[in-house]
Amino acid sequence: GWERRWVRWPDFRLPTDRADAADAFREAWERCADERVELACAGGRGRTGTALACIAVLDGVPAARAVAYVREHYSPHAVETPWQRRFVARWTPPTGPA
Fold this sequence. Notes:
By secondary structure, the chain is mainly alpha-helical. The chain has four helices and no strands.
């Protein structure tokens, strides 16, 4: 079957457990080097775009540019709410071993 991981994240909001979300972002980023990784939410814009923007930061995109990067390369409607944009702008990847 298809391995999956759920992050508690209400629609139009932020992750309920930010440490779990950060761990999921890092896991997706590490796994995509060698395998296909799918990120999805109900609409594919707000939460998905926010997660993609945080993963872009892990990959070296400056946090201040990450939302624009995702909108350019994924969807112009990605990262829907002001608090999602702020979350990305303030997000710094956790340090230390995954």
